[in-house]
Design a protein that fits this description.
Elements lengths: L21 H10 L4 H4 L3 H14 L7 H15 L3 E5 L5 H12 L4 E6 L2 H14 L5 E5 L2 H10 L8 E4 L5 H11 L8 E5 L1 H5 L1 H7 L3 H8 L13 H4 L20 E8 L5 E8 L1
Parallel strand pairs: 1-2, 1-4, 2-3, 4-5
Antiparallel strand pairs: 5-7, 6-7
Helix pairs in contact: 3-5, 4-5, 7-8
Length: 276
């Protein structure tokens, strides 16, 4: 694995690392810059400004340059017409990947974000980057948003999906997309944080055989958070999220591989790519 460039490291991740006012502070930082006019319509310059804030002011839980490069390379390879991300935060991944989808000829990038303030920040920065023609920000719980987009006919198929939201929802949202036939053979998944802090249920599911999935599907759907998650992960949000697991499509098998990379702080991590 290549070495991390410490000169571009974000400030260290604190105990409380989001939803404490830093996101709004970022917005003021961007819009008060002297080079704002040069940033308008430039995803690259906007991402550089966000990185600068996170390197000099406050840590932000962004995907960052290194992990982001894995997914942009995947976008270039897959050339998705429709890409969905679960977990938008302040819009870094949305801007980086939405721009890549646009340049590869894609038509729509959906960013699903539960937190209404974060959703508003994403919308503002997407507009600043000049990506509103491709990127659509949907505020609300990921499962409800997926059902609604599918139900009204806006989302018919997912070519590429990026999972970077509430870790216990990775598997439940994937199964929902399988059940709705949004994820089918040919769809590609990219999941962050599956090793650190860890996502045992997701790793188990995407690596299971048809027989293993069929056996698991015979049991009733589980409501709530899988007990294998640590307390800090399962209680990440101030409100409890009610997760309901469907059976998905047990006949869908994935080929998966881990690609090693770095958090923006320099901590080694991995992205799991899975192809149906």
């Amino acid at each position: 694995m290549t070495q991390f460039d410490q000169s571009k490291a974000y400030v260290a991740e604190p105990e409380v690392f989001f939803d404490d006012g830093r996101e709004i502070e970022l917005l003021h930082y961007i819009y008060n810059r002297s080079d704002l006019d040069a940033i308008r319509g430039s995803p690259k310059r906007l991402l550089a400004a966000i990185d600068e804030y996170a390197r000099t002011k406050n840590y932000l839980m962004n995907v960052g340059e290194d992990k982001g490069r894995i997914v942009t390379n995947l976008i270039e390879e897959v050339k998705p017409k429709t890409m969905v991300e679960c977990g938008g935060y302040i819009g870094y991944s949305c801007i980086l990947f939405g721009d890549a989808v646009k340049r590869s000829g894609g038509q729509r990038y959906y960013s699903l974000e539960r937190h209404p303030a974060f959703g508003a920040i994403i919308m503002s920065l997407v507009d600043l980057a000049g990506l509103s023609d491709v990127v659509k920000v949907i505020t609300g719980s990921s499962d409800a948003s997926i059902r609604r987009l599918h139900g009204n006919g806006d989302l018919k198929h997912i070519d590429l999906m990026f999972l970077d939201h509430y870790k216990p929802a990775y598997t439940t949202d994937l199964k929902l997309c399988e059940e709705l036939r949004l994820i089918t053979p040919g769809s590609v998944l990219a999941a962050d944080n599956v090793i650190k802090p860890g996502n045992p249920p997701y790793l188990e599911y995407v690596r299971s055989s048809v027989e293993q999935k069929r056996k698991a599907a015979q049991s009733e759907g589980i409501r709530g958070v899988d007990p294998r998650f640590k307390d800090r992960t399962s209680k990440q949000y101030k409100v409890e999220l009610d997760l309901v697991s469907s059976n998905g499509n047990p006949n869908l098998v994935y080929e998966s591989k881990l690609t090693h990379s770095f958090e923006p702080t320099g901590i080694p991590v991995s992205i799991l790519q899975a192809s149906a």
